[in-house]
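Postdoc handover notes: sequence design on the structure in folder B. Input tokens:
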């Protein structure tokens, strides 16, 4: 397909504060960039796609996903967070080989694209060897998705011969930053995913400082359960380590003071409502974070437990927050959190949180053409009375007909482009089989649970 596209006649939701929605508009894309938007644009030498009766909006941004867990789909449907840590982090993570990681990340990134996610924060913390890191990164590049490849510093439960020390892990991230991810202009950019903080804190500090040296965004699980002593955010604030390059994840137990610190530093929070509600991490922080003025985003987190689409995440985050308000206020007279408020969380605010606000996250001339087409003629969107609200509360991933990433169609009229789906399926099933065989089958997954709980209690006592 060519490099110049006229997307004609859609109802356009720009998700941009300075670019009004168009009830019926055209979008001209050239060399990956939105050149013009408006009603009845005139243009020569372009391929025209008729989008009458469709919705056009920015591609969605998943701010937190462990894409490598794709082969583990739904195995953790009934797991708490301790079950999850015991099964996934202790048992399954070391059982992945680089080829499994590639199959997992490729299938996971394509699943995301298929569901209208054009940008992914891949919190990639399954780095047993440098070859694991390379395989995970290659798969994201192969999928054609825009991503922050957040190199996970977390070590596995056993000593790795390839990356035996904390310093060697930091050095391996530097290797990628100085070679394959030296440019910040590619679709896949470098980031750092911290090890769970505070265990020990000196290590967390070294990780943050190393990421700053590399000049890349940082993302970190934070306050997902109550901990004694100063919180991660308090420690960072005390040492002057907070900043706009930090994307905290969960923060379900963050204090109001912590949230103010994050807001004041320009940092952001990724809420993952489905995992938080399921696993016992407390209530999603959405409403409190917004109230504190924190840039708030959403993520799917793990398809080892829950679904991998952001329509569900938007809906869940919104309705849980409303339920909490009703409970607090005794049947609220007004719903203060509006449905359409969820859209920036998966578009422009998420782009800003990744330092990509000038590039993606909304539709306006000059930005990259990261966009999705929803089939508004589907019965679940008909009649289309309030398009923004309908996207949040009524749309689902099956409505995503076409997906463009930087001017290239990743999905077109219902089908992923240039993808051998059979091969992708076969490889991710093979990865599932290989990983489960190495740990002694699914029945053996929770064997370390009690030992892990004891370890975690020890960690808390530090
Ligand atoms: Zn996570």
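Designed sequence:
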């Amino acid at each position: 397909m060519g490099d110049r596209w006229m997307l004609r006649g859609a109802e356009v939701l720009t998700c941009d504060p300075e670019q009004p929605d168009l009830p019926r508009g055209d979008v001209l894309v050239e060399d990956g960039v939105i050149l013009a938007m408006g009603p009845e644009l005139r243009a020569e030498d372009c391929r025209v796609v008729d989008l009458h009766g469709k919705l056009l909006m920015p591609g969605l941004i998943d701010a937190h996903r462990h894409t490598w867990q794709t082969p583990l789909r739904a195995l953790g449907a009934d797991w708490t967070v301790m079950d999850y840590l015991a099964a996934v982090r202790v048992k399954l993570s070391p059982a992945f080989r680089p080829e499994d990681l590639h199959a997992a990340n490729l299938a996971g990134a394509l699943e995301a694209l298929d569901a209208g996610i054009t940008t992914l924060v891949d919190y990639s913390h399954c780095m047993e060897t440098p070859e694991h890191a390379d395989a995970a990164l290659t798969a994201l590049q192969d999928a054609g998705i825009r991503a922050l490849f957040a190199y996970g510093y977390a070590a596995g439960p056993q000593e790795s011969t390839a990356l035996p020390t904390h310093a060697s892990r930091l050095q391996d991230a530097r290797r990628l930053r100085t070679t394959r991810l030296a440019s910040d202009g590619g679709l896949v950019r470098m980031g750092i995913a911290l090890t769970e903080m505070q265990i020990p804190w000196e290590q967390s500090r070294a990780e943050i400082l190393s990421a700053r040296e590399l000049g890349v965004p940082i993302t970190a699980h934070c306050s997902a359960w109550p901990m004694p002593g100063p919180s991660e955010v308090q420690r960072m604030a005390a040492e002057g380590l907070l900043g706009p390059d930090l994307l905290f994840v969960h923060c379900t137990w963050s204090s109001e003071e912590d949230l103010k610190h994050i807001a004041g530093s320009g940092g952001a929070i990724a809420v993952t409502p489905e995992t938080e509600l399921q696993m016992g991490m407390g209530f999603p922080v959405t409403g409190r974070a917004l109230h504190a003025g924190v840039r708030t985003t959403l993520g799917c987190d793990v398809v080892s437990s829950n679904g991998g689409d952001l329509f569900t995440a938007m809906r869940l985050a919104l309705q849980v927050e409303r339920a909490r308000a009703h409970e607090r206020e005794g049947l609220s007279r007004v719903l203060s959190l509006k449905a359409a408020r969820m859209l920036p969380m998966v578009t422009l605010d998420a782009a800003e949180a990744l330092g990509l606000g000038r590039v993606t996250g909304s539709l306006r001339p000059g930005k990259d053409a990261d966009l999705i087409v929803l089939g508004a003629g589907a019965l679940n969107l008909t009649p289309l009375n309030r398009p923004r609200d309908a996207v949040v509360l009524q749309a689902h991933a099956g409505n995503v007909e076409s997906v463009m990433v930087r001017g290239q169609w990743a999905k077109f009229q219902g089908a992923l482009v240039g993808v051998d789906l059979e091969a992708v399926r076969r490889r991710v099933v093979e990865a599932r089989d290989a990983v489960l065989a190495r740990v002694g089958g699914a029945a053996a997954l929770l064997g370390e649970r009690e030992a892990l709980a004891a370890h975690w209690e020890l960690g808390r006592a530090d």
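Context for whoever picks this up: The chain has two domains: 4-58+360-416, 60-353. Don't rerun without checking with the PI first.
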